[in-house]
Please model this.
Amino acid sequence: MRLTISQILRNPSESMEVSFSEKIEMAYPDVVCFSEPVTIKGLLTNTKKGILFEAEGATEAEFLCSRCLTTVKEPIQFQINEMFYQAGKVENDKEAETFSDEQIDFTDIIQRSILENLPMKVVCKEDCKGLCPKCGKNLNEGNCDCDHTEFDPRLESLRTLFNVDEEV
Model:
């Protein structure tokens, strides 16, 4: 995702509209795949100090439901507001985004923006029942025949407090 900026580089206060779409190749945590390419629409502006990139981005990713493991599609939208400085002209700022040869590579900033906007947990529906911890059946498709009356052995002594046959 490289763009040539020679048209605005020599003219301070000059702007250039940017619009492109590209397939995502990088692997992201919890993402099965991207079902849509990332689309970017924005503006590059020469601010005399550097090139300001203000844009909106969008894509769609497929995740596995955190409870039942079915595939879920989620839209991902993000904002970019980043300053790019000409390589060699920025002092003591190791984290500054730079460019050289009148070209800016947007790959890193777009990948970071997508990563920052990934959902922490994805569920197929709000009341998803998940999987049975014993047999693994998807409980959204119906109940299983497993016995779920087990108690945590650490709490077994507390069960005697609720025994209805004993007199208190």
